[in-house]
Every structure is written in C-alpha cells, then in structure tokens.
Design goal:
There is one protein chain. The chain is an alpha+beta fold. It has a single domain, classed as Surface-adhesin protein E (Lipocalin), CATH 2.40.128. Strands 1, 2, 3, 4, 5, 6, 7 and 8 form an eight-stranded antiparallel sheet that branches. The N and C termini lie far apart (32 Å).
C-alpha cells in the first residue's frame, strides 16, 4: 500500500497530540468530515491490561454550530494493532473556544489551508514527531 504522509498534527498539549488524515477530509455544505487522530505521549493502560497509544475517530463537524459528532472511534496499541472500539458514540459535543478541539474544527472547516505542511505515514509516527518537536522547542511533555 502506498504511503501518503497524510497524518497532520494540528495541535498538542503537554499530554497529547491531535491531528487529521488529509485524504479523509470532505465537505458538504456547513458539515465537514474527517478521520481525527488523538494520541497520548504516555500510553494508557486499562483495567483489562490493554495498552492504548492512540485513537482514530471518524468525525462530523458542524462548522456553523461549532460542534462535532464522533461517528466511530477505534483504539490502537503499540504495534498499530486495534485494541477495540469505544462504545456509546453518536454524541454531539459543542466545541469550546480555546480547546484543542477548536484547533481541529478550524483546520477541518478551513480545509486545505488549515492542513498544509509535511505529514506522516503512520499515526504513531505523527504523535512521536510532535513529542520530539515539543521537546526540541523546550515545551512541556508528560511522559
């Protein structure tokens, strides 16, 4: 399978990085759809012993109402193996001003100009790349 370098990190905090897969972005009027990546710099371990490094969600953004709906979310472990889906989806979330999700909403609704620059082939590479960038820029990283 051809590598696309389409995973773009849009924003990060000391704990996590979030991005979008460029080739999944599409618009339909005031709605935008994309695959969204959320990866923690410190893997999460659940009660059943499963380790999750990142999540990929299929999301719908209402660019006018400034809200998002997660249509599906998969959790992935250290070798890009799917750990499982997250239950209880289809919830409409308002996007709070100043939140990391506001950065995602702006990038997705703006489209091409909001998702420019170099990308990564794999989600885990995108997360690790952002972690390294933060460390080199003397920004805090929780790991």
């Amino acid at each position: 399978m051809a590598q696309t370098r389409d995973w773009i990190i849009v924003a990060s905090t000391p704990e996590a990085a979030m991005g979008v897969h460029r080739s999944t972005l599409r618009h339909d009027g005031r709605l935008a759809y994309a695959s969204v990546l959320m990866g923690t710099f410190r893997p999460e371990t659940f009660a059943d012993g499963s380790v999750v490094h990142y999540y990929i969600s299929k999301e719908e953004f209402d660019c006018e109402a400034r809200s998002r709906t997660e249509r599906s979310v998969l959790m992935f472990g250290p070798s890009a193996n799917a750990v499982g889906p997250m239950p209880d989806l289809e919830t409409d979330y308002p996007v709070r001003p100043g939140s990391i999700y506001e950065n995602i909403l702006i990038a997705v609704c703006d489209g091409v100009s909001g998702l420019g620059g170099g990308g990564y082939d794999r989600p885990l590479d995108a997360i690790e790349g952002e972690r390294t960038k933060r460390l080199l820029g003397s920004l805090p990283v929780t790991d």
